[in-house]
Fold this protein.
Amino acid sequence: MATRNDINPNTQTTLAEWIPEIWSRRVYEEARAKYFWARFSGPEGSGMPLIEKRELLTNPGDTIHVSQQANLTGAGVSGDTALEGNEEELSLKEVSLSPTWYRHAVAINRPASKQINQNFRERAMSGLSDWMAKKMDTAVWTASRTTAATGFESSVINVVYGNDATSVDTIDSADDFGVTEIRKAAATLGNNNIAKVRTPDMPAGMGYYLMFVHPWQAYSLKGDTEWIDRHENAAERGATNPLFTGALGVIDGVIIHETTQCTRAQNANSPVVYYARAVCVGQEALAVGLNQRIMWREQMTDFEYKQGIAVEAAWEVKVMTGNAIVQVVTAAVDPNA
């Protein structure tokens, strides 16, 4: 009897060219779409407030060192004064980004997949992309709301308080959010020589600061008589520009966006008052170091009895230029309370 040879099957390796990538791309696109900061991010020189550092996507390593050279401030020499011995040392500052891996997965077995009336793969992809987008968003908001010394300057971020308050615990219900607070934040960024955020399609010299406020701060703003009289509809500036998408409006060169990611908490005033921490940014305020973009993984185990879907990415977000961020802390009282 002739010797029988075992079947030599093709594997994922041999058929790699036939395995479609559409699912991986779709998760990335869906997560980016759900990612609040997606339209406010870009590479260096893009004019965006969140700068993507992509070196680790194509190079080995685990840390990205971002350096800043301070302007020379020495007097130099004049006339016949000897220059030798009067040289000025360069002053370098650094922010290091060490991306962390984030992963999540869902799975199903064959009996369950045969009984449900939904496409498990579709639902899993949607849920995982939503999870990843929220994870990335939270990282950016956490960095922007820090109260510790941070960034190239290693200094505490500037804070503007509502009305006549001077700290979180001196905020009362009258210290709410309005046009005055917007103006103060913009003036602080301007005084710090921070460039305004801009997109390539904007005319030369045009740009805006971006401010993100809590819904209860937005409620107070909409009742501000100056806002009512002077606010500009963002659509008039170009409804297709991503900086204006979903914006409440524009005033004094600041685009206002509303988001629940601006933290709301109670202070220690008497009586206790809820306050919120809005964030106003200019160009290159934050940086995200990417080690891997959002990727999708799928596997079948136990003789294809179990199906698993996973998503993964690696990043770290830090404040790059603290002078490009102003936090606006005001009362944020629920109008329904």
Remarks:
- The CA atoms of residues 233 and 249 lie 5 Å apart.
- The chain has seven helices and 14 strands.
- The first strand starts at residue 41 and ends at 42.
